[in-house]
Write a structure and sequence with these properties.
six-stranded antiparallel beta sheet; binds fe (ii) ion; 2 helices; five-stranded antiparallel beta sheet; 33 strands; mainly beta; 42% strand; Methylamine Dehydrogenase, Chain H
């Protein structure tokens, strides 16, 4: 049997296209949707030399962009992220700028801050992408960033960006960074943790930065053995959540949790003296053979961290989900709605539907695109004059096996299970990916 991450809905695309013409669609695009949807995911540029050991998360990053204007879909393009590793493999120009000891594939997330579009993956510095996506430059904030950063920075209320990063090469294994609204890295704090663990995301409430130190541990032996994502499950390493008081800036209060793995924090907020952290909790991860499947066993879970005492943990849904999102405006504060992808576990964890959680009413609704159609992460775009948290649209890129291409599907978030308001037919297939972002025009 082949590697499921190289086949079917995960099979990479190799052609880079620029389709600067109107794309066909069904339905009507809301006039508020003026801008660009970006998606990014792993997409190996060449067949791995040992396909059986290829890990999905190690694939070269590919960015896809769909441009919307005036109620029309006016163009599509896709480009490999021009990393050093890609340059070596296929002879494209290498990214300019300084380098750390390791550059990652920049395949996990894209974020725009202070006018700079950053591609991130967690094992290296961000890469700044050009507007046409054909260039990439290592973005180390004028030399201020000297360690890798995780792919999910969080926006703070002042318009800054909070980043966290795990450095596998030695202590301090964990650092946090604050980039101000102008894009200047103004502060780095070193966090004392005993080992390098997989750090993919961070939480941010009004009062606290929420750090995760969970027992998925970097293993130098696996790295030396050529394992491309060299982490292993080590339950006896313990599991804890750290709260950093953002005003004090230093000192971490660590709170033990049951051993687990978390890639994604859906949201975090202060609730009186408590801190609530909603995550997709996996009972374990990286306990399969190196290069194996990730497993569809994550559940939306709420941690309540009291000012004193132990954490309470509540699983909010029994369906396996991942890639949680909320409205950007709902981040860091009490909120009502979260979105996620529901996963099927065969032959590899594959999205089959989107779910919208109403956490206030303990209800959910789903959007299932149908057999042979694989949705992506939900990206929420607020309506221009929206008053409620869910007034707006959810954008998802749905891979259609029969057509051999993908559609951009636009859902009315307030009528989530209803028919899409628009389905834009893209000229190419977008393989199962990770994250995306909406860049409003202007
Ligand atoms: Fe992620």
């Amino acid at each position: 049997m082949g590697n499921p991450y190289l086949e079917g809905a995960f099979a990479p695309v190799r052609e880079e296209r620029t389709d600067d013409h109107e794309l066909s669609m069904d339905g009507a695009l809301p006039p508020d949707l003026e801008g660009r949807l970006l998606r990014v995911g792993p997409n190996p540029a060449v067949t791995p030399t040992d396909p059986d050991r290829h890990h999905w998360l190690a694939g070269d990053g590919m960015v896809h962009a769909v441009d919307l204007a005036g109620g029309r879909a006016v163009g599509y393009r896709n480009r490999f992220v021009r990393t050093r590793a890609l340059a070596r493999r296929i002879g494209t120009p290498a990214p300019r700028g300084p380098h750390g000891p390791v550059d990652g594939p920049a395949n996990a997330n894209v974020v725009r801050h202070a006018g700079v579009l950053l591609a991130l993956d967690g094992s290296g510095p961000p890469l700044a992408l050009g507007a046409d996506l054909t260039t990439a430059r290592v973005h180390d904030f004028d030399g201020a960033l000297t360690a890798p950063v995780a792919p999910h920075p969080k926006r703070d209320p002042d318009g800054g960006l909070v980043l966290v990063g795990s450095d596998v090469f030695g202590p301090p294994f964990l650092r946090t960074h604050l980039v101000d609204a102008d894009g200047v890295l103004v502060r780095t704090d070193e966090i004392d943790v005993p080992r390098a663990t997989l750090v993919h995301d961070v939480g941010l409430t009004g009062r606290f930065l929420v750090l995760l130190d969970l027992p998925v541990v970097f293993d130098l032996g696996l790295a030396a053995d050529g394992i491309s994502v060299p982490y292993r499950w080590m339950a006896d390493a313990g599991a804890r959540v750290g709260l950093v008081d953002r005003r004090a800036g230093t000192g971490v209060r660590w709170i033990a949790v049951e051993p687990c793995s978390v890639f994604h924090v859906a949201n975090a907020f202060d609730d009186g003296d408590d801190v609530v952290v909603d995550v997709v909790r996996h009972p374990s991860a990286f306990d399969e053979p190196p290069g194996g499947r990730l497993g569809a066993h994550g559940h939306l879970t709420r941690w309540r961290l009291p000012a004193t005492g132990t954490v309470s943990e509540e699983q909010l849904d029994d369906r396996p989900v991942e890639l949680p999102r909320t409205a950007d405006a709902a981040q860091g504060r009490p909120y009502r709605y979260a979105y996620g992808v529901v996963l099927d576990d065969a032959p590899a964890p594959t999205p089959v539907a989107l779910v919208k959680y109403d956490l206030e009413r303990d209800e959910s609704s789903t959007y299932a695109p149908g057999p042979g159609r694989v949705p992506s992460e939900a990206v929420f775009v607020p309506a221009a004059d929206g008053r409620s948290e869910d007034e707006g649209w959810v954008l998802t890129v749905v891979q259609d096996a029969a057509r051999g291409a993908s559609d951009l599907v636009v859902l009315d978030a307030t009528s989530f299970s209803g028919p899409p308001v628009a389905t834009v037919h893209l000229p190419a297939r977008v393989p199962v990916d990770l994250h995306g972002t909406w860049l409003p025009a202007g």
